[in-house]
Design brief:
InterPro entries: CHAT_dom, TPR-like_helical_dom_sf. Residues 1-22 form the signal peptide. Residues 662-977 form the CHAT domain. Pfam families: CHAT. The protein has 5 domains: 5-11 and 193-378, Serine Threonine Protein Phosphatase 5, Tetratricopeptide repeat (Alpha Horseshoe); 33-180; 504-584; 590-732, 2-Layer Sandwich (Nucleotidyltransferase, domain 5); 743-976, Rossmann fold, CATH 3.40.50. The chain is built from 39 helices and 23 strands. Strands 1, 2, 3, 4, 5, 6, 7, 8 and 9 form a 9-stranded antiparallel β-sheet that branches. Strands 16-15-17-21-22-23 form a 6-stranded mixed β-sheet, sandwiched between helices. The longest helix is centred in the middle third of the chain and has 26 residues, at 522-547. It starts with 9 loop residues before the first helix and ends in a 21-residue tail after the last strand.
């Protein structure tokens, strides 16, 4: 779900009142003169202002600007004598109606201004933004003066109303100023805060309209901070930036973070001064539900929002009768409600289309557009969104020609309102899809290529289902045009890179970019790490603020300090590593991949859609693209089947019969179409898509196999040394680093952990909420085989005794205090827990030894957040634990666990991960033989291949025949490069087993 078109509404309902030029003709050049200082010492100027409604023709209208901000801090209207009593003007008439449209005001209070003139003061709250304001009716020298503005501008209002030409004090006390600042200290609030807030909200609007949600998030977050510092975190009038921040997080699919903010908004909206706050919250919650894939839940919320918006509007306007737009435009609340109602109807159109009701969807969108036209508010951005939604409804109705027409109109509107931004790109892709459906291949490719150019220029991506029609069109053209086939297949690879990738891909890409930018220079690596740490700290502080549990000056101070550190770090990286940002590109082209591949190496990547997919092979001298009938849902089921086939049978010592049919079918769907290109390669880099990230590709079968003779089966690992990467960008950034680890020590290892006691677990997992967790954690028994695994690995590499921590010494404290950046290989052989396995563990965790005498088990849990704080310089991190590379969270979640991502961030060049619980003996053999081969000069990929082949070859000879089952040899997979080949590797599958085994 994209940002709503009602973000034009932000300029009105969340940022500021609409500029007077929206409904009154502007004037020529105006001259500003000094007006002295306000109560905070900010310099102010005064100039001729735009007219506002009054019952009597005014003598003059003036606007005051303070602190350099572009919005008026105050307005004054001088009326002639006889225009009415102060009491009558303060309680009724056109001016008071104008005030009530913008503010919620208390009853007038009699007071006096400096110099003794009589006045009536109304303590008000601005509906748009919730800022404290004042409105005043003052006894002026020529007649009544009507004024409104920020509380701290009262001294300037008084001077101008009384006709003073000097800013010097008269010596008379201002009772009005005392009343005005009674609710809020002049030292903490003034025109600067209002101006800064308005500026940030306007910036958020601009970024959100361009669908640049991440940058808009930061603008709204800062606006919220400005308001909370002044009004307090629990003030209901902070709900507007809070809601918009929540929606921007939701638009980025950060749904859990958004829900935290929406819950805070639920409590605040009913008490807000802005009457549009409640319907807007219902509307935004509906969009949040839509982002979460729940259109049925969104529909009743939108219906409620529409009803609440409608109560704020003239009945005739809502029901379709003609109405004078100027009357509506003069009322910001009505204008906000009109925009909100129109956008709610458009949003309802999106929901109805997704629920299979395209005709109703088109009607709803048309009703929204009609309302905007009647109110004179049909701007290009809103019109573009409405046309795009209508076009999408036509797509679902199967009317390609009409949808293409509407989408073309939408693209033209976006090209005016937000040229070269995401809305235009999305619409162009939809245009291309419909032109292709109408068999206009040339027109389709023209639209697709125009949209792709925007995406590459802005470094943004689109959902895979939006990109897939581009690939379909290119594939059809390649089949028809033999001469251009190679060029079209290269374009297909580039198009596939425009599809959005998972959070894992983005996270690992950021981590590996540091290695590429540093290219062996530790000073550059440290500078980039400082920037990434500063950004991580900022996210953590924002999460703390979003939760609303610890608001206050101290948290604000920490955020300000963190922002300063981030700015300094960014400047340092810009000077030390100008290539860093380039390595963070959202996509790379085939040429960039080809330049980093070896002569006998190929990369395979894929994009799977709802009905089919595409697979790609990139070698130094060619690119091959092929369509596959395998879709994402089928691939996910097949991955699940193969993972289940590696699970031990209940009550048995080993796994059951392996599903060779599925292993072969998955190979046929993914790599079979690429066989002609892969014929000469011996090394394969795989960049899987979606659920395929949670499967080691070495266990795929390239041909038929007998389940009873798996040692002789044609496993993919026998053909290729395999390396897995989350995406092509990761490989390019990893290979940009020309040097491996410069750490002086060969190895650091931890194993044979000591489990926590039942009492310690009970204290860590309270029985009222986490009793089941305590029971499950108590089943994490000791892993005695890991003692041999770590000891043998250390001996093979010549590690010093103090580099190995076993049993009671293998604690989290020992790991966190060790100089891990001194080791080229880090080895953790223990249990790992992923979210979903234990409900009270919110993040992935490695289990280490519980310190003797500890009150609970918390000191044994090394979380992914703590791993992020480690500083490594490791060619290889071996996570010889249970399921460190498997699916995280209930239902799969991200394909790679947060542990793998966190170790990349900490500084690993490669990870040897496990995709399921490992057998002790097999793990000891594979780890030891991998390290032996790597020490002999093999790359990490070739070393792991050799160790796995050895296990297969020895199954039924020196090892039990069951060891040919993938359960034993396949859980280990290499993620990233690890160590690259530096000498002739040991490749023979008949290599001797380590002597100690």
């Amino acid at each position: 779900m994209r940002a709503p078109g009602l973000l034009l509404l932000l300029a009105l309902a969340a940022c500021q009142s609409p500029p007077e030029s929206a409904y009154v003709a502007g004037s020529g050049t105006v001259t500003a003169t000094a007006a002295g200082q306000d109560a905070r010492g900010e310099a102010c100027t005064v100039q001729t202002g735009r007219a506002i409604p009054t019952d009597t023709t005014p003598l003059q209208t003036r606007e005051v600007f303070c602190g350099g901000w572009t919005q008026p801090a105050a307005r004054l209207v001088d009326l002639p004598g006889g225009a009415g009593s102060l009491e009558a003007l303060a309680s009724g008439g056109a001016w008071r109606a104008w005030v009530d449209q913008r503010y919620v005001c208390a009853a007038p209070t009699a007071t006096s201004i400096a110099g003794g003139a009589r006045a009536l003061l109304l303590a008000c709250t601005r509906k748009a933004g919730g800022w404290p304001q004042v409105a005043m009716v003052i006894e002026g020298p020529r007649g009544p003066v009507l004024a409104d503005g920020v509380s701290t501008v009262v001294p300037v209002i008084e001077r101008l109303a009384s006709g003073q030409t000097s800013t010097a004090s008269t010596g008379a006390r201002s009772e009005a100023l005392e009343l005005a600042v009674a609710r809020l200290s002049a030292g903490s609030f003034g025109a600067s805060e209002v101006g800064r807030f308005d500026e940030l909200m306007s910036l958020g609007l601009e970024l959100n309209q361009a669908e640049t949600f991440g940058a808009a998030e930061e603008a709204y977050r800062q606006a919220l901070a400005v308001q909370e510092r002044t009004l307090g975190a629990g003030n209901p009038n902070t709900v507007t930036p809070l809601m918009h921040l929540a929606l921007n997080l939701s638009n980025q699919r950060r749904l859990a973070e958004a829900e935290v903010l929406f819950r805070r908004a639920d409590a605040l909206a009913p008490g807000a001064a802005d009457p549009v706050a409640v319907p807007r919250l219902l509307h935004y919650r509906a969009l949040h539900a839509l982002n979460g894939g729940h259109p049925a839940a969104a529909l009743p919320l939108l219906n409620q929002a529409e009803a609440r918006y409608a109560t704020l509007l003239p009945r005739g306007l809502v029901e379709g009768e003609r109405s004078d737009g100027l009357v509506v435009l003069a009322d910001p609340v009505s204008q906000s409600a009109i925009l909100g109602l129109a956008e709610a109807r458009r949003s309802r159109g999106i929901v109805l289309a997704r629920l299979g009701r395209p005709e109703d969807a088109a009607t709803s969108v048309a009703e929204g557009r009609s309302l905007l036209r009647r109110a004179g508010l049909e701007a290009n951005m809103l019109t573009g969104r409405a046309l795009r939604t209508a076009g999408q409804a036509e797509i679902r109705a199967g009317r390609a020609s009409e949808s293409a027409r509407l989408l073309n109109l939408a693209a033209a509107r976006f090209a005016i309102a937000a040229p070269g931004e995401r809305p235009e790109a999305v619409t162009l892709f939809l245009v291309g899809q419909q032109r292709a459906a109408s068999e206009d291949a040339a027109g389709a490719l023209s639209a697709f290529r125009s949209g792709a150019a925007i995406l590459r220029a802005r470094q943004i991506s689109l959902p895979g289902n939006v990109v897939m029609p581009y690939l379909d069109t290119l594939a059809a053209e390649a089949a028809r045009s033999g001469a251009d086939r190679a060029a079209l297949q290269i374009e297909m690879f580039g198009a596939a890179q425009l599809a959005q990738r998972s959070g894992t891909v983005r996270f690992v890409q950021q981590a590996t970019a540091r290695l590429g930018a540093a290219s062996g220079d530790p000073r550059v690596a440290e500078a980039v790490r400082k920037l990434q740490d500063a950004e991580r700290d900022m996210r953590q502080l924002f999460t703390e603020r979003d939760a609303g549990t610890t608001p206050g000056p101290e948290l604000d101070r920490r955020i300000t300090e963190a922002q300063g550190k981030r700015g300094e770090a960014e400047a340092e990286v810009a000077a030390a590593a100008p290539s860093f940002r380039q390595l963070l590109l959202a996509s790379v082209d085939a040429g960039a991949v080809q330049r980093v591949l070896g002569p006998d190496e190929a990369m395979v990547t894929m994009l799977l859609g709802e009905t089919h997919g595409y697979v790609f092979a990139i070698l130094r001298d060619r690119v091959m693209a092929a369509r596959t009938g395998l879709n994402e849902a089928t691939a996910a089921r097949m991955v699940g089947t193969l993972r289940e086939a590696t699970a031990p049978n209940a009550g048995a010592s080993g796994p059951g019969r392996f599903d060779v049919t599925t292993a072969r079918a998955l190979y046929d769907g993914l790599l079979g179409p690429l066989e002609p290109a892969l014929a000469g390669a011996t090394r394969l880099v795989v960049a899987p898509d979606g659920p395929l990230l949670s499967l080691p590709f070495g266990m795929l079968l390239t041909g038929p196999a007998d389940p009873a003779a798996l040692g002789a089966a044609p496993w993919l690992i026998r053909r290729f040394a395999l390396e897995h990467v989350p995406g092509p960008q990761t490989l390019v950034s990893l290979r940009a680093a020309t040097a491996g680890s410069s750490a002086p020590l060969p190895y650091a290892g931890f194993g044979d952990f000591v489990p926590a006691t039942a009492t310690q677990l009970a204290h860590s997992f309270p029985p009222d909420r986490c009793a089941e967790d305590a029971r499950l954690a108590s089943g994490l028994g000791r892993l005695p085989g890991t003692r041999a695994e770590v000891s043998i690995a250390g001996q093979l590499l010549g590690a010093a005794p103090d580099a190995i921590r076993l049993g009671p010494e293998a604690t989290k404290a020992a790991l966190l205090t060790a100089r891990l950046d001194q080791a080229r290989i880090l080895h953790l052989a223990t249990h790992a827990l992923l979210p979903g396995e234990l409900s009270c563990l919110p993040e992935p965790t490695i289990v280490l030894s519980t310190p003797a005498g500890a009150a609970d088990a918390s000191a044994a849990f090394l979380t992914a957040s703590e791993v992020l704080g480690l500083k490594l310089d490791a060619d290889l991190v071996i996570l010889s634990a249970c399921n460190t590379g498997g699916p995280g969270g209930a239902g799969g979640g991200e394909a790679l666990s947060g542990l793998a991502r966190a170790f990349f961030y900490a500084g690993a060049r490669g990870l040897m991960i496990t995709h399921w619980a490992v057998d002790d003996t097999a793990a000891t053999l594979i780890v030891a033989d991998t390290l032996r081969r790597q020490a002999g000069g093999a790359s990490s990929a070739a070393a792991l291949q050799g160790a796995q082949q050895l296990l297969l070859d020895e199954a039924g000879r020196r090892l039990p025949a069951a060891y040919a089952h993938p359960y034993y040899w396949a859980p280990f997979a290499l993620l990233g490069d690890g160590r690259r080949e530096v000498a002739t590797p040991v490749r023979s599958a008949a290599a001797e087993m380590p002597a100690r085994l």
